[in-house]
From TrEMBL:
<dbReference type="GO" id="GO:0015159">
    <property type="term" value="F:polysaccharide transmembrane transporter activity"/>
</dbReference>
<dbReference type="InterPro" id="IPR054765">
    <property type="entry name" value="SLBB_dom"/>
</dbReference>
<feature type="transmembrane region" description="Helical">
    <location>
        <begin position="240"/>
        <end position="261"/>
    </location>
</feature>
<keyword id="KW-1133">Transmembrane helix</keyword>
<keyword id="KW-0812">Transmembrane</keyword>
<keyword id="KW-0449">Lipoprotein</keyword>
<dbReference type="InterPro" id="IPR049712">
    <property type="entry name" value="Poly_export"/>
</dbReference>
<dbReference type="GO" id="GO:0015288">
    <property type="term" value="F:porin activity"/>
</dbReference>
<dbReference type="GO" id="GO:0006811">
    <property type="term" value="P:monoatomic ion transport"/>
</dbReference>
<feature type="domain" description="Polysaccharide export protein N-terminal">
    <location>
        <begin position="45"/>
        <end position="141"/>
    </location>
</feature>
<keyword id="KW-0625">Polysaccharide transport</keyword>
<feature type="domain" description="SLBB">
    <location>
        <begin position="147"/>
        <end position="226"/>
    </location>
</feature>
<keyword id="KW-0472">Membrane</keyword>
<keyword id="KW-0998">Cell outer membrane</keyword>
<comment type="similarity">
    <text>Belongs to the BexD/CtrA/VexA family.</text>
</comment>
<dbReference type="Pfam" id="PF22461">
    <property type="entry name" value="SLBB_2"/>
</dbReference>
<feature type="signal peptide">
    <location>
        <begin position="1"/>
        <end position="19"/>
    </location>
</feature>
Length: 264
């Protein structure tokens, strides 16, 4: 009986250490004396610069709209198309050389420009080549949505598109079904595209200082990966009560097996 009690205590100790600590399930833990987050976030909000494979939506307006009709997309008769699908077909994709190809203007290099700089560039080219100042040319350029992919321990993994100028990592994850208890918030990976290739960045969503990170705001085509905690791979419970129940089941199985063996 003493051996049985010792076995019970041993199993209970092993499984209790496999519980997921409450602090690891939280966001915004103040692990140090954080700086003024409001000021830091403002510093992080640098304008995005156009990269290869981005899709730009471009609209040109003038006093006589018929003169710029060729530069604007034609309304699709397919009412079942989503906003993302319309942007894909009507937008201008940045090719491998950083160029977009526009009617009457030809190829224009926009790699590394902000959307505001692209607007100024297009207005200048239109005024130089086709229109006069009296035409009152007005160009708007936007990214065709913030497209990103979330993988791993989230409720709804997959590729998402949000139609807004900026998206932080918490908004991206919230739109992907949230991170379950078994997700490792401390070791989230951001896989980001650069002109020279892809790089992997680590961020800790458990720490409030994540708002100071240059990767707090995601960029188009980012891949966000949330790895599982080791408790999931071990197959243990997420809470102490779940582990106690598992221990009780195992102990009952062991006890029954011992009794049956002794009767033989």
């Amino acid at each position: 009986m003493k051996k049985l009690g010792f076995l019970f205590l041993l199993l209970l100790g092993i499984f209790s250490t496999s519980c997921i600590p409450h602090k690891d399930t939280l966001y915004f833990v103040n692990k140090a004396n954080a700086l003024d987050s409001l000021q830091t976030i403002k510093e992080m909000q640098k304008p995005y610069r156009v990269q290869i494979n981005d899709i730009l939506t471009i609209r040109v307006k003038a006093l006589d709209q018929d003169n710029v009709r060729i530069l604007n997309p034609i309304d699709s008769p397919n009412l079942n198309m989503t906003s993302g699908e319309k942007s894909y077909y009507d937008g201008f994709t940045v090719d491998a050389h950083g160029n977009i190809r526009m009617p009457t203007l030809g190829y224009i290099n926009v790699l590394g420009y902000t959307t505001e700089e692209v607007e100024e560039l297009l207005e200048e080219k239109l005024l130089e080549e086709q229109f006069k100042e009296t035409a009152n040319i007005f160009v708007t350029v936007k990214l065709a949505g913030m497209r990103f992919t979330v993988m791993g321990e989230v409720g709804s993994p997959g590729t998402k598109t949000l139609f807004q100028e900026q998206v932080n990592v918490f908004e991206a994850i919230a739109n992907s079904g949230e991170i379950p208890v078994t997700g490792n918030k401390k070791e989230v990976l951001i896989i980001r595209q650069y002109p020279q290739g892809q790089k992997i960045h680590h961020i800790d969503l458990n720490d409030v200082a994540v708002m100071q990170s240059p990767y707090y705001y995601i960029q188009p085509n980012d891949i966000i990966y949330v790895p599982p905690l080791k408790q999931k791979s071990l197959g243990t419970g997420e809470t102490l009560m779940q582990n106690v129940a598992t221990v009780a089941t195992l102990l009952s199985l062991v006890t029954t097996s011992i009794l049956l063996i002794n009767r033989l």
